[in-house]
Design goal:
Elements: E1 11-14, H1 16-24, H2 31-40, E2 45-49, H3 50-63, H4 68-78, E3 79-82, H5 87-92, H6 102-110, E4 115-117, E5 132-134, H7 136-148
Parallel strand pairs: 1-2, 1-4, 2-3, 4-5
Helix pairs in contact: 1-2, 1-3, 1-4, 2-7
């Protein structure tokens, strides 16, 4: 029996709107929820920054406090929290995304995430070539297409 080297798990950066939707979703089949489940079963490595964590916690506290336990459970089970990028690193990429979202894009690139999943694609334009920005549903379709190529 030959041994094969394990391949690296794809790294995916999750934006706050996707984490909010996944935490608050009543359905286990929403695209946001599916992405978080993929991370939970280690098909992908899902990352968020401290900024994303803070935004989601603040917004859930204000709008849907009943979803906070699910949010905290998801974070502990399937998300890696990484530090926010430095202001120097953010400044080096000025103009690559909306000012408020630039730290998220820069964090995704710094952490070598090939994908950033968000509902607000336009906020991450013109973007960085090393990070593909996709909506959750499109990310799921892409994964499905890749899996279909295995047959």
């Amino acid at each position: 029996m030959s041994q094969t080297r394990p391949k690296k798990v794809p790294r995916v950066f999750v934006d706050s709107d996707v984490l909010f939707a996944g935490s608050a979703s009543p359905s286990e089949h929403s695209a946001s929820q599916v992405i978080l489940r993929m991370a939970e079963i280690t098909l992908i490595e899902a990352l968020i920054s401290e900024q994303v964590f803070t935004e989601v916690e603040r917004n859930l506290t204000a709008k849907l406090p009943q979803a906070l336990p699910n949010f905290r459970h998801l974070v502990s089970r399937c998300l890696q929290i990484v530090p926010d990028p430095t202001s120097t690193l953010i400044q080096a990429h000025r103009g690559k995304a909306d000012v408020k979202d630039l730290p998220i894009l820069v964090a995704a690139a710094r952490e070598k995430c090939q994908w950033l999943v968000t509902f607000n694609i336009v906020h991450f334009q013109p973007g960085l070539t090393e990070v593909t920005v996709l909506q959750p549903g499109n990310f799921i379709f892409m994964v499905r297409d890749l899996l279909m190529q295995l047959t």
